[in-house]
Known about the structure:
mainly alpha, single chain
Amino acid sequence: SHLSSTFIGIGLVVLGTMMIGASGWQHKRFLKTLSGDSLPPQYSTRLSLALSMLMVLCGIALAIYLAAASS
Length: 71
């Protein structure tokens, strides 16, 4: 039915959002183990973390929107 597909869709958005957040957190922990000379020149350690945080915020917003639109 329509309601079950809505819950499945919202669940998948939440699951994907959690995976992006977890991978960003793991990447941050990994970067802390590297010394400064291990990174390529001009490598930005903040860009990947900022993008993952942006995607998490977008995922949360999408899940909220889908939940509100379905009721």
